[in-house]
Amino acid sequence: MQLRRRDHVNIQVTQVKAKVAWYRDILGLRTGPRPDFPIPGAWLYAEDTAMLHLVAVSEILADMPHDNGKF
Predict the structure, then answer these.
(1) What is the pTM of this model?
(2) CB of 14 closer than 8 Å to CB of 62
(3) Which sequence spans correspond to the domains of the chain?
(4) Residues ≥6 apart with Cβ < 8 Å to 53
(5) Which residues make Cβ contacts (< 8 Å) with residue 39, sequence separation at least 6?
(6) Which segment of 9-13, 41-45, 55-59 scores lowest on mean pLDDT?
(7) Less Cβ crowding at N or C end of the chain, within 10 Å?
(8) How, if at all, do strands 30-32 and 49-56 pair?
(9) What is the mean pLDDT of residues 26-54?
(10) Is the CB of residue 18 less than 8 Å from the CB of residue 26?
(11) Which of 65, 8, 1 has its CA nearest to residue 34?
(12) CATH of region 9-61
């Protein structure tokens, strides 16, 4: 499967490396430049577009309810 267009989708994950591998192997995205944020994560690209932003969160934070999509 190949994604062609989505722009700046942000997903909070607990295992960044595993998620990067999944999105790379299954959807064909590639890692690319990411600003030097204080929180670990990865930006995944389709062609030259930063399509998906992965943000690392702890297991505890991942289990908390989010009503507005922000932490």
Answers:
(1) 0.72
(2) yes
(3) 9-61
(4) 8, 9, 10, 11, 34, 41, 42, 43, 44
(5) 55, 56
(6) 55-59
(7) N
(8) unpaired
(9) 91
(10) no
(11) 8
(12) 3.10.180.10
Percent of the chain with pLDDT strictly greater than 90: 46
pLDDT at residue 13 tops 50: yes
| Residue 54 in tokens | 């992965």
**Residue recorded with tokens 């590639």:** 30
Closest listed residue to residue 56, CA positions, set 8, 4, 1, 10: 10
Non-local CB neighbours of 50 within 8 Å, separated by 6+ positions:
7, 8, 32, 33, 43, 44
Q: Give the residue, 70 or 45, on which the prediction is more confident.
A: 45
The pLDDT of residue 50 is: 87
